[in-house]
Automatic annotation (TrEMBL):
Top-level taxon of origin: Bacteria
Name of the molecule in the record: Amino acid ABC transporter substrate-binding protein, PAAT family
Keywords, ordered alphabetically: Signal
Limits of the Solute-binding protein family 3/N-terminal domain: 34-263
Subcellular location: Cell envelope
Length: 265
């Protein structure tokens, strides 16, 4: 089979069984292996460190559930977002479970499993800001806070916000919220479910509100999935099988209800 045909199959089927059959000779992980997982670690409620420095959160629980389903040990590490794909490519870990959006650009760098949740993005502003229009023209001259390298950062740039407003970039998701409250930025954009279960659960959020429509698709991606290396089709298939199992046996819903009162799929 030619490499061009292989790439076409992979594009159509992701890490489906047809591609796995083509790569049947690739080395497979045994049931006793340790799955090395990277997550972001500063992105509550998806992944964060508790007072003892232990990783917690929805993505951490999902990773542990998948490892248990595959009868593998889980080794989960925190990795800064802008280096998370390079770390995977450098073989520092085997999979990324970090609410990563399945954008077209990322599909060229990693192989995604089936999605395990949907995602939408929204702006937040102060209630008394007078901001109603969140188009590039509507935010002209404003300062917009966003996590560096995130899909929302890419979306802002792709839609010309960097030409009308000042993009203020952060290495995590909490700092933009703090700067919004402190008045150092006029608006922030990020994952709506994250804002709902994090920022809007804290007292300082009472004077702030979502504004404008929800955004999804395109560079914001088609939901969130687990990323593995482009040639790691065997692991991708095993993760898909495990994902299907935890969704059918109720484990996924138990984890979801622990963090969110609303469905994620």
């Amino acid at each position: 089979m030619s490499f061009r045909l292989f790439k076409r199959l992979r594009a159509m089927l992701g890490c489906g069984l047809a591609v796995a059959a083509v790569l049947a000779s690739a080395p497979a992980l045994s049931a006793s292996d340790t799955l090395r997982v990277a997550t972001e670690g500063t992105y509550p409620p998806w992944s964060f460190k508790d007072a003892s420095g232990n990783l917690q959160g929805f993505d951490v629980d999902i990773a542990n559930a998948l490892c248990a389903q595959m009868k593998m040990k889980c080794q989960i590490v925190a990795q800064a977002w802008d280096g998370i794909i390079p770390g995977l490519q450098a073989n520092r870990y085997d999979a990324i479970v970090a609410s990563m959006s399945t954008t077209p650009a990322r599909r060229k760098q990693v192989l995604f499993t089936n999605k395990y949740k949907e995602t939408t993005s929204s702006f937040i502003v102060a209630k008394d800001s007078g901001i109603k229009d969140v188009t590039p023209a509507g935010l002209k001259g404003k300062r917009i806070g966003v996590q560096r390298g995130s899909s929302q950062h890419q979306w802002l740039t792709a839609n010309g916000y960097d030409k009308t407003a000042t993009l203020v970039l952060y290495d995590d998701t909490r700092q933009p919220e703090l700067d919004l409250v402190a008045g150092r930025v006029d608006a922030i954009i990020g994952n709506k479910a994250t804002f709902y279960s994090g920022f809007f659960k804290r007292p300082e959020s009472k004077d702030y509100t979502f504004v404008g429509p929800e955004f999804k698709g395109g560079v914001l991606g088609d939901g969130n999935a687990i990323a593995v290396r482009l040639d790691d089709t065997d692991l991708c298939n095993r993760l898909n099988t495990a994902l299907d199992a935890i969704m059918k046996n109720g484990t996924y819903e138990q984890i979801r209800k622990k963090y969110f009162p609303f469905p994620l799929m």
